[in-house]
Amino acid sequence: MTHDGPPARPRVLGAVVDDETRCVHYRTDVDIVAIRFACCGEYYPCHLCHEEAAGHPARQWPLGERDARAILCGACGAELPIATYLEVDACPECRAAFNPRCRLHTHLYFETEG
């Protein structure tokens, strides 16, 4: 017997409050992204969730790893490369809007130039 449904989504750890990866810290309509942290390979909704639950310090994704699929769209479950995520305001797969204010935290997740 084959399973014809959508592939299983990666697990998202931390203080997640719904199935679109919103958390207790960020839960507006557009807070639908989880980030796979470079230090542990686990998805968390935000830096605060990682800080509270991971048990180790966060590590930024190096500039040279922008092709890593480290962004999870909570709306459709697509895993996006970092470079793609940094260039868009909505999921390229389902068009769900991402929170533009997340750009304020880019340096917490990804090495930045300069």
Automatic annotation (TrEMBL):
Listed GO MF terms: zinc ion binding
Stored Pfam families: zf-CHY
Domain of life of the native organism: Bacteria
Every CHY-type domain range: 16-96
Biological process terms in GO annotation: protein import into mitochondrial intermembrane space
Keywords per UniProt: Metal-binding, Zinc, Zinc-finger
InterPro entries the record matches: Mito_Tim_assembly_helper, UCP017292, Znf_CHY, Znf_CHY_sf
Protein name: CHY-type domain-containing protein
